[in-house]
Amino acid sequence: MVDLELDDGLAVITIDRPQARNAIAPETMEQLHTALDGAEGATALVIRGAGDRAFVSGGDLKLLAALRTVADAAAMARRMRSVCDRIAAFPGVTVAVLNGHALGGGAEFAVAADIRLAASDIKIGFNQVALEIMPAWGGAERLVPLVGYSKALLLAGTGTVLAAAEAERIGLVDRVLPRESFDEDWRAIARQLAHRAAGEIKRVMKGASTEEAVDAFARLWVSDEHWAAADKAMNRTK
Asked: CA-CA distance, 105 to 102, in Å (whole number)?
């Protein structure tokens, strides 16, 4: 089951299969596409798993065991890769909230987002090689700019699983948050990133031209939100 919550510009997609450690089943892929359709127009997007044991534990092997041909495996990989591609291409800021372990396909899901927030006790790793397969949802390619080519190859090639603190140290995780206040902390950060300005900053950082960047600034400058905030700031200085 996949849930979508919309809250004042913030879309929160929750993969809710705790009995399977939030593993991705074939129907989950379709539900994710539907949820992403519903999130269009949001200024920020959060992807999370239900509970605190797993963010996403990859594909549900019990339900995917029937895929025994090259064509079937390729079709599954393309379908789930298209979900990750949509997250990566989302116009607003995207945040993977690692409420639990992110292993295998879960790690691929995490790196599709712009930002990764992790609870202090989680682990993350591209450990597909333990099953004699490789990342298939775009995760290997997305890992390289985060940690560098050689480190990405070492991590994915050996299936190394990292604790949250080490993942933060090498740049795979962006911020580690205390478990006891995790839900409050990630929501506070996500709400900040749901501001329209954060989405424009993302667009510029992704490679906007000078004119596009200036135009984005000018449109923010004349917005009601800017002048409400500016008036509030000026009143504080009186």
From this structure: 8
